[in-house]
Amino acid sequence: MSSIFSSVLTAFLVAAVVCTAANTCTTVYLHRALSHRALTIRPSVAVVLRAVLWLSTGIKPKEWVAVHRKHHAYTDIEGDPHSPVLLGWKKVQVKNVALYRATVLDPTTIDRYAKDLPDDRWDKLFFGHNKTGLLSGIAILMIALGPWTGLLAAFIHANVYLASNAAVNALGHHFGRRPYDNRATNLQWLAFFTMGEGLHNNHHAAPSSPRLSHRWFQVDPGWWVIKTLTTLRLATVRFSDIRLTATAKASFN
Ligand SMILES: [Zn+2]
Ligand SMILES: [Zn+2]
Q: What is the CA(100)–ligand 1 centre distance, in A?
């Protein structure tokens, strides 16, 4: 009995570490660096972040970037890949992956929104093969923890990662505070789960800013990671101050 308890506990702890790593790479690399060019990360560090994403999510960066840039181009209007205004927040929360896949399968999405991200040699060798990445990640957990504990850790991580990222698109455009005049919302509790992404109203107000916390009481753990990288000279930020869009400047209250 105690060995089952310790296996389950181990699975939860490892899943928490893997999910935090995946969410860190998602917000810092996929979102702030690649999608918005809010920071530039040294190639030697970027390849590590890409490897973590490949093993823990199987996401192809150019696909994620294209879907996200389309979301910014059509936020909460016809054309938005995952708008709670158009579809309802429950549908976006539950069907986020299906909505993502449908957008990626449209050949115009990558052409129009990720032209600047052609496959490089790393993609050709590893990162373009997303199923291989995911299966390798699961295999590593099974070898390191034992087959059942490893599978359980992978299962917990997959569910938490998918649910928390869906929540940014669903809850983060429906529930919460709107200090700036846009449809996105700030949810600090969600920002703790997603390394800052829950401060989504701030992000839509200043998409080119690498920092998502705009007030002293807001917490953006992804920004701490970026600060560490810049202090170590492993990354540079495009703007050191927060650049609000014209609409956000006019509407801030
Ligand atoms: Zn949004
Ligand atoms: Zn964005």
A: 14
